[in-house]
TrEMBL record:
Gene3D superfamilies: 3.10.450.50. This is Carboxymethylenebutenolidase. Transmembrane segments: none annotated. SUPFAM superfamilies: NTF2-like. GO terms for biological process: polyketide metabolic process. InterPro entries: Cyclase_SnoaL-like, NTF2-like_dom_sf.
Length: 428
């Protein structure tokens, strides 16, 4: 697949019809009791299967305001995150001792029927009449939880192994996300119908809650992806066409060339990281500015993006591609501050794209910056080199590709002879 960027405008026009802001999915929370609420799905689709969350009373991070979001602010708390994944949420909070609070049993009995309002009646493959359940806070579990028959089809439990309630349910497929303060990963034995993961150097099992004392972005992201995979496979949904979502996003970047439509394909607080040049944007405000001022209209007219391979997972798209263009204008995100050289360049790239529900959460894009510099003449083939064992400097041939060979090697197996650089090095 090739994507050529010649159909859209070459500059930003705030008055353009294509730059009308695309509204984010909006679904206000519905309180049922002091400790129970419903959060409808926060997707463009607007419906999804039921998911019950047992959550602690942990205050979230402060509002983003006008500042660049912190790591904790860019990562939504689990209720919003799972709603963005396409689930209808029944959230049960730990008791505060307030009048009118519902028990776990009453919350299921009264709350689950209300989630049917967001059922997809035409989706006959997704499990009906049963919910998924994620246990973050064990204080909400009743004493007879592991001996009761529950309207639950699949279960996820977070917690330290020291808790008696961190164990598989005898009749419900269970994923255990356990934490340990030790640097060694635990190896808890569970029956084959269940699954177990351990998160080392993690003393607090509320590590998924931004603003909490044990919050860990890395573990939160990995455990969320594992839990999502477990639930989707057992519930048979909700499924989204991740390739179509990714291609819609890139079409607005390179064909429509619309900042508003590009951002309309992303969650409330997304981010983009171009790793080699440390460019991109974190949060909706900064990423919008990046797309407007440094990316969408900074790509030359003859840009071609050619897909080489693509792998689609539960919530990720991984893609290898080549990115080609004539350097006839400043390309901020790839060659920051470098004036046009008029040279044609081709750069092999990798994209790792996280998709939450039916919208993008983040992009991690990587490439070899030396390849780009070589092709525009910024990086020489040889440099003077001298170490302590050398009385005089010698010429060192830099072990970098000129770009065309690297692109050929990525695109066609055997097109370039391997290991040629083994014969390079110091020259007289």
């Amino acid at each position: 697949m090739s994507t050529t960027s010649f159909e859209g405008p070459m500059y930003y026009d705030a008055a353009s019809e294509n730059e009308r802001e695309v509204p984010l999915p909006s679904a206000p929370r519905i309180p049922l009791a002091p400790n129970v609420l419903i959060q409808p799905p926060l997707t463009r689709r607007g419906y999804g299967p039921p998911l019950v969350l047992l959550v602690p009373n942990i205050p979230g991070p402060p509002p983003i305001g006008d500042a660049t979001p912190t790591t904790e602010q860019i990562d939504p708390e689990p209720i919003q995150k799972w709603a963005e994944e396409g689930f209808a949420i029944l959230a049960i909070f730990a008791s505060k001792g307030e009048s009118g609070e519902w028990s776990f049993a009453k919350a299921l009995a009264e709350g689950l029927p209300k989630l049917k309002a967001w059922d997809d009646v035409d989706d006959y493959e997704v499990v009906k009449d049963k919910a998924s359940l994620i246990v973050y806070d064990h204080s909400i579990l009743p004493d007879d939880f592991f001996t009761s028959t529950l309207p639950v089809h699949v279960l996820v439990i977070y917690g330290p192994e020291s808790l008696n309630s961190v164990k598989p349910h005898p009749t419900i497929p269970t994923l255990l996300n356990t934490c340990t303060p030790s640097p060694m990963v635990s190896s808890l034995a569970v029956p084959r119908q269940h699954k177990f993961y351990s998160y080392e150097n993690q003393a607090d099992h509320f590590f998924c809650f931004p603003g909490g004392p044990g919050y860990d972005h890395h573990h939160a992201d990995i455990s969320h992806a594992r839990s999502l995979s477990w639930i989707k496979k057992k519930m048979n949904g909700p499924w989204f066409d991740l390739e179509a979502i990714w291609e819609e996003h890139t079409a607005h970047e390179f064909f429509t060339r619309s900042v508003a439509k590009t951002m309309g394909t992303m969650v409330a607080q997304p981010y983009v990281n171009h790793i080699p040049t440390i460019t991109g944007g974190v949060g909706r405000r900064d990423l919008t500015a990046f797309y407007r001022d440094h990316f969408i209209f900074s790509n030359p007219r003859d840009t071609v993006q050619t897909m080489v391979s693509r792998c689609v997972g539960i919530d990720r798209v991984a893609e290898e591609f080549t990115f080609s263009f004539t350097h006839d204008q400043v390309v901020d995100w790839l060659l920051p501050g470098v004036p046009p050289t008029g040279r044609k360049i081709t750069v092999p790239m990798n994209a790792f794209v996280s998709i939450r529900g039916d919208r993008l959460y983040h992009e991690h894009i990587s490439w070899d910056q030396a390849i780009a510099y070589r092709q525009i003449g910024l990086l020489p083939t040889h440099v003077a080199f001298q170490n302590g064992d050398m009385p005089e400097p010698r010429q060192l041939r830099l072990p970098t590709s000129d770009g065309t060979d690297a692109a050929k090697m990525l695109v066609t197996v055997g097109a370039v002879k391997s290991n040629q650089m083994f014969d390079w090095g110091l020259e007289d």
